[in-house]
Description:
The complex is a heterodimer. Chain A has helices spanning 3-11, 16-28, 36-47, 52-62, 66-75, 95-99, 102-113, 155-173; strands spanning 87-92, 126-131, 143-145, 148-150. By secondary structure, chain A is an alpha+beta fold. Chain A has a 4-stranded mixed sheet with strand order 2-1-3-4, with helices on one face. The longest helix of chain B has 19 residues, at 494-512. In chain B, the strands form 5 sheets. Chain B has a 5-stranded mixed sheet. Chain B has a 4-stranded mixed sheet with strand order 2-1-3-4, covered by helices on one side. A 4-stranded parallel sheet of chain B has the order 7-6-5-8, with helices on both faces. Chain B folds into 5 domains: 2-98, 3-Layer(aba) Sandwich (Glutaredoxin); 116-326, NADH-ubiquinone oxidoreductase 51kDa subunit (Rossmann fold, 3-Layer(aba) Sandwich); 336-419, Ubiquitin-like (UB roll) (Roll), CATH 3.10.20; 424-513, NADH-ubiquinone oxidoreductase 51kDa subunit, iron-sulphur binding domain (de novo design (two linked rop proteins), Up-down Bundle), CATH 1.20.1440; 526-581, Alpha-Beta Plaits, CATH 3.30.70.20. The chains are: A alpha+beta, B alpha/beta. The structure holds flavin mononucleotide (FMN), iron/sulfur cluster (3 copies) and FE2/S2 (inorganic) cluster.
Amino acid sequence: MGCCQKEKFIFTDISKEDKNNIDLILKKYDGRKGTLISILQEVQEKYNYLPIDILNYISLKTGVKPAKIHGVATFYTQFRLNPVGENMIMLCQGTACHVNGSKTIEESIFDELNIKDGETTDDGLFTLINVACLGCCSLSPVMMINDDTFGNLTAEKAKQIIRSIKEKSKRKGA
Amino acid sequence: MKIIVGQGSCGIAAGANKVYDKLSYEIKNNNLDIELSSTGCIGMCYLEPIIDVIHEGKKITFVNMDENKVSILLNNIYTDNISVNEFTIDKKDIEILSKQNRVALKNCGNINPESIDEYINTDGYKALEKVLKDMSPDEVIDEIKISGLKGRGGAGFPTWFKWNAAKNSPGNKKYVVCNADEGDPGAFMDRSILEGDPHRLIEGMIINGYAMGADEGIVYVRAEYPLAIKRLSNAINEAEKKGYLGENIFGENFKFSLRIKAGAGAFVCGEETALLESLQGERGMPRLKPPFPAQKGYWNKPTNINNVETLANVAYIILNGGKTFANLGTENSKGTKVFALTGKIKKGGLVEVPMGITLRDVIHEIGGGIKEDREFKAVQMGGPSGGCIPKHLLDTSVDYESISKIGAIMGSGGMVVMDETTCMVDMARFFLDFTRKESCGKCIQCRLGTKRMLEILTRICEGKGKIGDIELLEELGTKIKEGSLCGLGQTAPNPVLSTIRYFRDEYEAHIHDKKCPSKACKELVEYSISENKCIGCGLCKRNCPVEAISGEKKLVHIIDLDKCIKCGKCMEMCKFSAIKIG
Ligand SMILES: Cc1cc2nc3c(=O)[nH]c(=O)nc-3n(C[C@H](O)[C@H](O)[C@H](O)COP(=O)(O)O)c2cc1C
Ligand code: SF4
Ligand code: SF4
Ligand code: SF4
Ligand code: FES
């Protein structure tokens, strides 16, 4: 069986709604070359990660080889091929943060959530990702949770921030 | 009355949005006659959140604000003299600001980055008008040549030369690209300019376009800077509306358009040929030069790539003349440079100073010295491509030549300050870990060499270093430099080589004595309890995760070294400083 056939098979798996979503994104970049990264960024914005079936669908629609799409998706750290938790913790491990103790912050997150770099908590609430620099080095150590940046962290402060987010989502869930 | 809140990313991380919201709430609720506005980062990050109150032509700055202080402040404003307030900025901090010479950062922290009118009011787009109406492209390039401006993105290449090469390349379609990738961890000057004064960058890019004959520009911004992307795209929209971007700018026969491309997170994409690949939707792999981007760049058309800070100097040079700029700085390094001061420094933030100032002045005068009055050990300059500068070289002048003479580089201007608690071998390991992860993998020397170096450094930090390791590192370092295609591999060994050069004794202590003099390498330290300080409260015993501590109440406790996992929890908990590390 050739690989194209296999893709066709997978391609039938994606829902009509997904197709519509993707078609809309592709239409925006229609006919313009060199836009693969932008397309993937929009897909990830929509789905929070890059589902493999959807990558195959993009390949079919655009004629870009699956290997190339995969190559680009794995080259850049922004892209994720697996789903992530509801809250994304981006912990800075840049130079300034390293010097000011980001390792301790990582340990405190492990203490609180039992996850390491790249992992998601069992309840799906948090994912931890180490990043290179958030550009707030003067307030190091720094982490970003979703769109909020927190500076001058200590182990205790980091734990408290995470706990308060836990509380909030518990209340939402109840 | 007007109140301005500093809302750069750093200010926001320190709580500026909460302060802004509280102010806005109080003003509305009490019908106060106060105009509320927002600005970017002024550079004094250690004082954030910062707000400026402008009243009857006088400006008073209040620092370290929070929501509670807002009410007190507003009360004071309305009841007595606003200048007498416990939250006002210290005189010394104002002095620090006045010691700087702001060219690229002129407007940062002073104007509202979301208002094109405020930019125009500070002579914004006047340089563009002058260029389009009174100057030929060659005259523009000449002015840049006179200024002596060199690239601020790392390599320090003369800006006029690149512009000229792009201009002289044959072809009608040309591009201007701004490198706003700022991959160097510990540097954040580009972010501050994008967030605090986006129009300055836009103006610089349009002038660049005119000088080289390009009608299209792209800003490649790293994805980790969402606020910068937001403010820049807002600024582009406003500039289009006012006709600074588009067709027939200032009624002249010149058109220029600008767009943003968000990066996707890869340090190597800051390298110019890799950046171009990435712009074209490919993996960001560097290629051999020549051909240079000026000859074959974006879609193989002549392209000029400059750093954000480089372009932020352009409008000043055009308005004030290249000579004025060249009068600042040293013989070979003209103008000012923005530095990001971080690490174990008291007054961390952004500073812009004339080239030629000494490192000592930057760190001790402007930066206020070392946190907790500890000993200065080293300053790391140039990020992963740079080196560590030791104490005895603190009087080195900060300019391209002097810094590279002592084995570091100016780089993009990150200065990470370290004290005696930072281990230099660990720092070298940190940078190698970074470059190994970021290597694109094209060259064997870079891909495997950095991996080998990292293994050796890790071994040394863990107390498993062998005689000959230092020499092996030096040898590998030289080979990686020689055998790598792009700047990443060519500079990756620098942090290792410079720490070996200046801190060889620390390497030797790790290898020969199995000791970490800075007590930072976990595997090489031991925790113990001081007999005459311990009062036997038992707090450490209760908190040790592996039950390594024993002792009766009110008696001296002891640590079982075989059980101890060196987590440091006991030291953190003990209120009597009885836990020692050695
Ligand atoms: C691995 C690597 C990473 C780089 N990262 C950046 C960067 O993040 N920002 C930047 O402006 N220049 C970076 N550069 C330098 C650029 O390749 C290029 O020299 C610069 O953008 C040119 O602009 P300038 O002449 O204004 O400095 C990097 C170079 C290398 C080799
Ligand atoms: S030196 Fe390293 S990063 Fe540069 S092209 Fe070679 S492998 Fe890639
Ligand atoms: S916490 Fe300090 S004082 Fe208390 S038992 Fe432990 S070492 Fe002794
Ligand atoms: S360092 Fe950690 S494991 Fe060791 S004695 Fe202290 S608390 Fe226990
Ligand atoms: S090093 Fe952590 S924010 Fe820059």
